[in-house]
Amino acid sequence: MTTALRPLVSAVGLIAAALLVAGCTSGPGSETPTSSPAPSAGGVDVDDQNDVEGTLLDDGRMFAVITWGSSTCVPQVDQVSAEGQTVTVTLVDPDGETPRPCTKDIAPRASLGALPEGVDPKNDITLNVTYGDITDDVDLDGDPAATGTPGTPGEYLPSAGWFDDDGLVLLTWGSSSCVPVVDSLEGSGNAGTVTFATAEDQVCTMDMAPRATLLAFGDDMIEDDGPFTLTLVGGGLDGTVEVR
Questions:
Q1: What pLDDT, in 10s, does the model give residues 107-118?
Q2: What is the DSSP string of 51-116?
């Protein structure tokens, strides 16, 4: 299925769910799984629960894979390989073979991965995704403006990409134990603002991890063409992100 890297909007933030490579390492560049509760998605068609979506992030260095399931058990990227512009991705449930309790809601979850060296983010990419019994192909449009090179370190700056007509993935960097929590989300025209809650007296680990936050916008609240600017407010994330 083909991702649409374009805008859409709502008025309540959806989800913060973060992912990627397991392991706790201190200092910049560490990548640890992080997550926070997400609301269940009422009225989801059963067939849609097997759909897989995706988007490019970090100026073409990373990608996000979107699946449906429990918001408290976000799949992790286990293996990634590439042959030309075809990238094979295997997702696994957190903790591998170890059973863990999961809420029984149905929500979109974002799993982050790094594109292998040699993949050109300026050209179209196909993700061949396997997650348990689910297999799907995700066609990502190339980003001609991408300046990142897969396989090289990023600059730990926020980035965002549309994964379908009514949701985007926001990538931020920071403590894996203090993920961003959306307080409010609004948008109009070709701009939106997400405000994050600021927790007081919160103790955070000193690692630097990628955190994925899913944002959903309501129908007909923003324009569906042209560039889109997302303003981040609060949570130590103040700034703007151009969503291409």
A1: 999 999 999 999
A2: --EEEEEGGGTEEEEEEEE-TTS--EEEEEEEETTEEEEEEE-TTTTS--------EEEEEEEEPP
